[in-house]
Amino acid sequence: MLSRRKFSAIFGLSVLSTNFVKCASSSSTSKIPGNLVISTWDNQRANQLALHELNNNPSYLLNAVEYAIKSVEADAEDRSVGYGGRPDREGEVTLDACIMDKDGNAGSVTYLKGIKHPISVARRIMEKTPHVMLSGAGAQQFALAEGFEIENLLSEESLAEYKEWLVEKEYKPKANIERHDTIGLLVKNKNGDLSGGCSTSGMAYKMAGRVGDSPILGAGLFVDNEIGCATATGVGELVLKTCATFLAVELMRAGLSPQKACEAAIERIIAKCKTDDIQVGLIAMNKEGQIGAYSIQPGFVYAITEETASRTKEVNSYFK
Ligand code: GLY
Fold this sequence. Notes:
Elements: H1 4-11, E1 17-21, E2 36-40, H2 44-56, H3 61-73, E3 94-100, E4 106-113, H4 118-128, E5 133-135, H5 136-145, H6 156-168, E6 183-188, E7 194-200, E8 221-224, E9 228-234, H7 236-242, H8 244-253, H9 258-272, E10 280-286, E11 291-295, E12 301-306, E13 309-314
Parallel strand pairs: 1-13, 4-5
Antiparallel strand pairs: 2-6, 2-12, 3-4, 3-7, 6-7, 8-9, 9-10, 10-11, 12-13
Helix pairs in contact: 2-3, 3-4, 7-9, 8-9
């Protein structure tokens, strides 16, 4: 893995002050007026890439989202996003992603095989087709026509782990697996314009054909530039059944702060679904740069990067 200094040198970034805030704390109700990036899990490096893009071109919000998420998709050590992601039960890595901009444009790709950067494919779908979502073989065909290349996405580590899994073939989604699962990333520029993206290889050892929340607008991600935006991580089935990010944005529209909106949306999931030992985390931000985060179980963290500092914070959870 790249050291922070090497990463900064490669990407031409100044080394922001970064830290990991260990104590669980409520999210800030203070307003962050400048460029701001938040993302699920400890994705400070991705955040810093996004912030760098925003600082250079504040109006190119989607570049910030895409480039940051691509860096995680390319990282073999992140075993739940892009290259190196854990496969499905058949040993296939299948990827889901979506992207949404300040004008309500959106692109989404599901069940994509062999293409390392689903977030870029999602953006191309948004920008170059009359559709919002492409899936499976058709999505791959479109990606190839756009110049993307087929690659083997199953890393040696994920293959070795898959072979071990085949011995018992037990399917049990684990909460907070290695403190990541999905990158959901939200950006705001100094004008208060918002955009976001979400990318995952989905739940490890899922059934072939399974699609989670991450590519579904209103589930894994929702952006409404009049109000705010939200993104989700965790067991996608619960997020799908409750339209949790749409709900969080609508709760902000009704006047709740991003923090209260995340709490109410998580409480809705708990009220409607069986949540024993299941994790879902939500993060949200409004146009004023207030942020919020909440989860069902302890252990969820998120990264906040503003112009002067970057930090990873533990999130308060419903169950302690
Ligand atoms: N949240 C990722 C998934 O369920 O696929």
